[in-house]
Design goal:
This protein is of the alpha+beta class. It is built from six helices and 16 strands. It has a single domain, classed as Deoxyribonuclease I, Chain A (4-Layer Sandwich), CATH 3.60.10.10.
Length: 311
């Protein structure tokens, strides 16, 4: 779907009385480009049962990121089994934060920032994670959180939270509990008015596929709105494509002292129809083998002049 069609979609939603975040003129803001990108079991060859020796995608992942993800300021990566290996496929100077996990099959969440920025820990925490989201009884991931600072000025710009919520359509109750726990963690931070971006693979399913009456992406926004003022980036494109499934699993939410300064974009491979063919990364089989089953979701957000805090 092109930019023009997305703009029409936004207009139709506004006529229907559906509240969505709208872009603001880029000239009024400091702009930051955020990307959510799940790289299927990167570090073990795309399989939870693989090993480091099975990973053959380093060159293609590096090339895909350089050509189709960058330029960006912040990337939240998910399903990373080898964090040091991920750092090697990024350009020189990128700074990444994550956590240690003994399970070799664990899918890490990793936050990475371009060389213009540094990461700073929350003053109320002694590491980069909120472990409360790891609910007993399932293989879950903590939230990775950090404050993005501008290297040149040492100014704190935005709080970033990377997520990989519980998978499967019938697990919405677990995802919503994780989001409720995240809201509790956010209430404990020292500077709640610092702009905040939450992004990653939230495994959001539509109703009634999730066995509920509302889509997961709406239910998650309602959890956030019970505590804070957040908006969902109104992406309508698929972000997941496997040989058998399609989904819009990847999401970006942002506090309302930020504003969108462009339309969301998704690498178009995931939205191609069944039976589509192509070359290179636009070939579904090649992309699945050489890159991932997710397509990166990106948005540019503005802070500063022209932004406002809603609540």
């Amino acid at each position: 779907m092109g930019i023009g069609v997305r703009s029409l979609f936004t207009f139709v939603l506004s006529l229907a009385g559906i509240a969505i975040a709208a872009p603001i003129p880029p000239a009024t803001t400091t702009q930051l480009r955020f990307v959510a990108f799940n790289i299927r079991y990167f570090g073990s060859g795309g399989s939870g049962r693989g090993t480091s020796a099975d990973e053959k995608r380093d060159a293609t992942v590096r090339d895909f990121i350089a050509k189709n993800v960058l330029p960006a300021d912040v990337i939240s990566f998910e399903e990373i089994t080898d964090v040091p290996r991920l750092r090697k496929v990024l350009p020189k100077g990128w700074d990444c934060v994550s956590y240690d996990e003994e399970d070799l099959e664990h899918q890490h969440v990793v936050l990475c920032a371009s060389p213009k920025f540094d990461w700073r820990r929350e003053p109320t925490d002694d590491n980069w994670t909120w472990e409360s989201l790891v609910i007993p009884g399932g293989k879950l991931r903590p939230a990775v959180h950090a404050i993005l600072t501008e290297t040149r000025t040492n100014r704190e710009l935005v709080r970033v939270v990377g997520l990989h919520l519980k998978a499967f359509p019938d697990k919405s109750d677990v995802r919503l509990k994780q989001m409720t726990l995240l809201a509790t963690e956010l209430r404990r931070v020292r500077n709640l008015r610092l702009p905040t971006v939450i992004l990653g693979d939230l495994n959001t399913y539509p109703a009634p596929q999730n066995t509920l009456k509302k889509d997961d992406e709406i239910l998650i926004e309602e959890v956030l709105d019970q505590n804070f003022a957040f908006s969902r980036v109104p992406n309508v494109e698929m972000t997941f494509r496997s040989p058998t499934l399609r989904g819009r699993y990847d999401q970006i939410y942002f506090s309302n002292n930020l504003r969108m300064v462009d339309e969301p974009s998704v690498y178009p491979l995931c939205g191609r129809p069944e039976g589509a063919t192509g070359t290179g990364y636009m070939n579904p089989a090649y992309y699945y083998e050489k890159v991932s089953d997710h397509c990166p979701l990106a948005i540019t957000l503005g802070l500063g002049a022209g932004s406002r805090y809603v609540r």
